[in-house]
Amino acid sequence: MNKLREYLGQSPREGVHVSDLINPRKAFFKKVSPLPLTDKEVGYFITGRVLHLIVQNALGIKEERRVYFAEPDKVTVEGNEDLQVGTLEGDPGEFKTTRKWSIPSVPDQQYLDQEGMYCAMENALDPARGLRGHIWVLYLTPGRKFDGSKITYPQFVFWTVEYAPEDLEAIRQNMRYRRDAFVQALATKTEEDFKKMPLCYDWLCATTGKSGTEIQCPHFDTCKPEGRWIGPGQFKGGKK
Ligand code: SF4
Q1: Which residues contact residue 126 at a Cβ distance below 8 angstroms, ignoring those fewer than 6 apart?
Q2: What is the 3-state secondary structure (H, E, C) of 49-85?
Q3: Do 210 and 186 share a domain, yes or no?
């Protein structure tokens, strides 16, 4: 386990990435006070990475497409798209795996946010690109039940998302705010600037299940996420 932890945790990424903008406070702690991966995280990461590798190999994708959101006098944001659907230079696409038990009618918000940013970045480089993106999710255990009474089978779901140019500009505007807040918080490390960063997804703070609420983020009591932190180790809200 320690070898795996070491392998997965080596060479942390430099620069600012799309994932830093999506969950900026978590990304802040990762840079300022990094922690070793937990056993749970090691398990999640190896499963996701192996499945990604197989899908990309099967599609003949040698490497992810790297895109940049660069503006004068600002830190450049980088993104790595998993797939280019259609041809190697086709629409941007993301491949995800999840252990969720139910398949929603629309993609989860975190997938939409990530794909939206990639499309907005592509569109900033070339106005003909990024008007359409794809989200491909492998549900590993759809329909599973708490009592284990149902056999489940992995299921692929493929969504296409279309954007108008103004949607993509609105996404870029949100990216600018997040990028600047993240960079500023890292530069000053003051509480005031930290609090200007948007919150991460609530399930990264804590989750609520059959056995109650469990704090997931090791920085919960330092971050004190507004509207969710109601005392040390006490979380308000959340979803299963
Ligand atoms: S407590 Fe929640 S908002 Fe704060 S860093 Fe952790 S996951 Fe992000």
Answers
A1: none
A2: HHHHHHHHHHCCCCCCEEEEECCCCCCCEEEEECEEE
A3: no
Mean pLDDT by 10 residues, the chain (240 residues): 82 86 97 88 86 84 86 94 68 88 91 96 93 92 79 91 96 98 98 97 90 91 96 78
* Shared domain check, 176 and 63: yes
Does the C-beta of 200 come closer than 6 Å to ligand 1? yes
Q: Whose CA is nearest to atom 4 of ligand 1?
A: 223
- The reply to whether 237 and 165 lie within a common domain is no
Domain with 51 in it: 2-198
Q: Say how many Å lie between the CA of residue 171 and the centre of ligand 1.
A: 22
Please count the structural domains in the chain. 2
**Structure token digits, residue 6:** 């070491």
Same domain, residue pair 175 and 221: no
